[in-house]
Specification:
The chain is about 55% helix and about 10% strand. By secondary structure, the chain is α+β, with helices and mostly antiparallel strands. Helix 3 packs parallel to helix 7. It starts with a strand and ends in an 11-residue tail after the last helix.
């Protein structure tokens, strides 16, 4: 059976912006695996009851159902061991650390930059849910949390180590992209899809790396529909 990925969509079904779904899409492409996506909205919890989960990504591979983006990447390495994404042993431990750095430093900074762009991008039926859940999480309104300039300063600091690494390496994982690249790329793709703002400094190592990442795997990400297209 074909691999199926439940993927978050926005106000246009073609608008796919989840950083966690992008991680998985890139990992699937890395493995050379064909897959189809199922558009999913925040409030459509019933559609995922079969997975005993309430968010995406959800991967269906035949009878196997796997949830959580990092666990899906781990599953793909075990089920399809050629072209590892995360690796084993020390490599796996290091990429786990990388995951936490991205989620706890890069993502919060990005959210400050794109909060209102993201709100505008989600499906109208999801906006009340999105606002209530995020405002409960942050303890303030989305408008108060949305501080692009502050976010950009935070992001610049968070990306500094990656910039240093990319100053003499084509990809975070070396000469070709791997799990570390997909973890960071998924987050930056989140902003790229929903916002027209300049997120990273043009011409700098991270910007050049991002452009390379758009074009790997036959330009999978370069074909993504963004808010600039609708």
């Amino acid at each position: 059976m074909a691999i199926k990925l439940y993927d978050l969509c926005g106000r246009d079904e073609r608008l796919r912006f989840s950083p966690y779904c992008w991680r998985v899409s890139m990992a699937l492409a890395h493995k050379g695996l064909e897959f189809t996506t199922v558009a999913w909205q925040f409030k459509d919890k019933q559609a995922l009851e079969f997975a005993d989960y309430d968010k995406v990504p959800v991967l269906c591979d035949g009878d196997q159902v796997v949830t959580d983006s990092f666990e899906i990447m781990r599953y793909l390495d075990k089920a399809y061991p050629e072209a590892p994404v995360l690796g084993e042993g020390v490599s796996y431990q290091r990429v786990r650390l990388f995951k936490y750095i991205v989620e706890r430093s890069v993502n919060p900074a990005l959210f400050r930059i794109i909060a209102m762009d993201l709100f505008a991008a989600v499906h109208p039926d999801d906006q009340d849910y999105f606002r209530k859940t995020r405002e409960a999480r942050f303890g303030c309104t989305l408008e108060e949390f949305h501080q692009p300039e502050q976010g950009k300063q935070q992001l610049k600091q968070a990306l500094a180590p990656f910039s240093d690494l990319l100053s003499d390496s084509a990809f975070l994982d070396g000469n070709a992209p791997g799990g570390a690249d997909y973890l960071l790329f998924g987050s930056l793709m989140w902003a790229y899809v929903v916002s027209t703002q300049e997120i990273v400094e043009p011409g700098k190592p991270v910007d050049e790396w991002f452009k390379r990442m758009l074009n790997v795997h036959d330009g999978l990400a370069s074909r993504a529909v963004t808010v600039r297209d609708i």
